[in-house]
Amino acid sequence: MHIEQPDEMAILNYTSGTTGYSKGVMLPYRSLWSNTRFAADHLSFIKAGDHFVCMLPMAHMYGLAFEIMNGINKGCHIHFLPRVPNPKVVIDTFTAVRPRLIIAVPLIIEKIVRTRIFPEINKPTTRLLRSLPGIGRLIDRRICKALSAAFGSDFSEIVIGGAAINKEVEQFLHRIGFRYTVGYGMTECGPLISYEYWKT
Asked: Which residue numbers delimit the AMP-dependent synthetase/ligase domain (predicted)?
């Protein structure tokens, strides 16, 4: 009987964020294991029985490592979007599932912020109130609570990656104290390169 060794190829994954033709990346078992181990050590807020919503394709290394393998390793419930993602489908799914960890590309976050929040905060009265010392902070807390509700309210953090996040949206999220972080990785690294919990 063959026992897989750490340096043996576990998966041949084709790059998604490349120019030209996708390139096959040979990832060994140790690469998958190290990402799963990292998640176990650094995402300690995830417990057995928590819920994940898979929005990234399963052929995407980040989705495979942190939504599927991490979810299975921790004993979580893994849910899949019923249709192609758009703000309504995503919000309805998050409201029903109430995921503990959300991993998303910037476009999903930006669309939700721009369709659900920006129209409200750009009203003249809200803009005036947000500019007032003291009151502005209270308004921002309420905005943060409303935005958190769109993501199911129970999440510990949202990890955004896969592309650059819009500067205006990122500054807004930071100002209201939203629970998010930006991660970075690439298929060849199996995939994680950098991550830091949102509170640090």
From this structure: 4-195
Pairwise CA distance, residues 122 & 44, whole Å: 37
Task: Give the tokens for residue 122.
Answer: 């750009």
What does the pLDDT average to over 89-109?
94
| Topology (CATH) of 9-194 | Rossmann fold (3.40.50)
Of 190, 194, 159, nearest in space to 61 by CA: 190
How far is residue 101's CA from residue 21's CA, in Å, rounded to a whole number?
Answer: 32
* Rounded Cα distance, 152 and 173, in Å: 17
Mean pLDDT of 34-56: 93
Residue 17 predicted with pLDDT over 70: no
108 contact partners, CB below 8 Å, separation of at least 6: 55, 85, 87, 90
pTM above 0.85, yes or no: yes
